Structures
1.
Amino acid sequence: MKVSIDSLAEIARYYDDLMSHVNYDRWFTVAVEIAALLPRGFCHLDAACGTCALLRKLRGLGWRSMGLDLSLAMLREGFRHAPAPTVFVADLRAVPVVSQFHYITCLFDSINFLTETADLRLAFRELARALRPDGILYFDVVTERMILDHFAGRRWTERSGKLTTTWESKFCRESGIIETRISVKNGPESVVRERVYPLSVIAEAVEAAGLHVVQAVDAETWQPIRRKTTRIDYVAVKGNPELFRERLAAKAERIRDLMQ
Ligand SMILES: C[S@@+](CC[C@H](N)C(=O)[O-])C[C@H]1O[C@@H](n2cnc3c(N)ncnc32)[C@H](O)[C@@H]1O
């Protein structure tokens, strides 16, 4: 396991502004729909929760939720908003909890931040270990299509409010590694590395962790994955997938309707 330094330390304080265009409502809607399959009073973990944007919304529903993230700087931003979230600094590859959560979410590319296949496998093992025997994991990943359409080989400047941010992305198709240099207000550059994985590698890592994929769909529509899909939503379970598949199918239909 490679120990990473906090690549987001420099930009954490700007993160919420930089991501103000991001549609958190979609993740919120799906997370809530899936949660309807859980027992009352379930315990939830938002893994790699960042600045707690989604966590805050879910806790607003009265959920027993907590978050973890590797970046103290990102978590600290979460404390700017009341009520303070319950969070801890931890690595997806070493989650210090066993069999505690009914439900884990891990969203907005966080899985893509794991740039070694061994780390991907380790993270799924750790998330599986943190889940209760009948637990559910909802995570997403970006695809190569997302990188090719929006990032690879591009340099651009964005203005949001008072912030001017310069982005520069390089993509190595062979390794799947995308390296993005971000400079806010002409400040020091942060380098963020993500990796896009073949779907077979993700499926294999999930199964090897003792989880079973029961849904893998285009995240924007919850329709089947297609060539144009830029983000994939996965739902995986720790228990018997057959018991769950039918109930999720009904939910999936509702999610598709909500997304139209
Ligand atoms: C793109 S951000 C998404 C944050 C949050 N899920 C959201 O929706 O805003 C990715 C997050 O993954 C975290 N992260 C990356 N690698 C991690 C690791 N190995 N363990 C825990 N968190 C990690 C980063 O610190 C960052 O907060």
2.
Amino acid sequence: MYLSKKTIQMLAEKLNALNKVRPIDSALLEKIKKNFQIEMTYNSNAIEGNTLTKKETFWVISEGLTIKGKSLKEHLEAKNHHEALEFLYELIDKNKKNTISEYLIKQMHSLVVNESDSKIAGVYRTGNVFISGSDHEPPSGFEVAVKMEELIAWLKKEKNKHHVIELAAIMHHKLVAIHPFWDGNGRTARLIMNILIMNAGYPMGIILKNDRQRYYRVLAEADRGDYKNLCEFLAQSVIRSLNNYLSVVSPTKNKKEQLLTLAELAGKCNYSPAYLKKLILTNKLEAAKKGRNWYSSVKAVDDYKKSIAK
Ligand SMILES: Nc1ncnc2c1ncn2[C@@H]1O[C@H](COP(=O)(O)OP(=O)(O)O)[C@@H](O)[C@H]1O
Ligand SMILES: [Mg+2]
């Protein structure tokens, strides 16, 4: 087990909280999905060297705009990555048990570089490559096919032996280490690992452009067989997405802040309306007055309880 107990517990708790608020209103879900798509496309392409900003990515994808000073290739990369994400969502929606195959990986790759680099789309490299910024030497061109076969066999065998986030992290590393394509390996592998993650009900893990150095460092550790930090790194990205989701869909936070009459509030805490009023009049409990009535919230009472517990 590479993930710490604490991380595993946090993933479970937050996934559980998310499952509790399902089903999520479809309009809201669509909005969240759009945000994730921009976030993922921007970050994954930026890691790879694309210079579009997040806002520009949004303009290109959602508004079909052309950004002055940015190359056609950068535009196409944004558009193609977005289309690959649409395909990913379709997979997840359609079939809960979709398995990762070489065919699927090639399909994803051909979407990622569809127009930006169509000559290499969906075909394994036949020559050697190196990864700039890394000491890792991928297998030679003629070994790729065999290594990919081994990867799929490994995945089948290990599927139930790991926490799904661990499985996704190790799978991700193995795929980028083989580096089966001339280019687009990172982007494709970041999408493919999310098939595993999203099939398990989690929102997608997004590796941030700002974490590029750390990402390369934990991949280099994985090259040496040390997977711990890579797994934690991916888990943190999924936890960030879970938090993101929860902050948008969770009614509990807003509910706690909802203003209630003292009679209503008394029903939700251990104080009587009279005692609540006394706390308000002695400036111990945050409250608001509308007309002749006082209003406060569960959150305010929680804050008061915390203040006296100190
Ligand atoms: N030490 C490493 N071991 C294995 N893979 C690595 C290592 N360092 C970087 N990589 C992977 O190589 C990718 C870059 O390969 P590339 O084919 O150019 O992909 P893309 O064009 O999508 O960025 C990085 O995004 C990362 O996933
Ligand atoms: Mg590249």
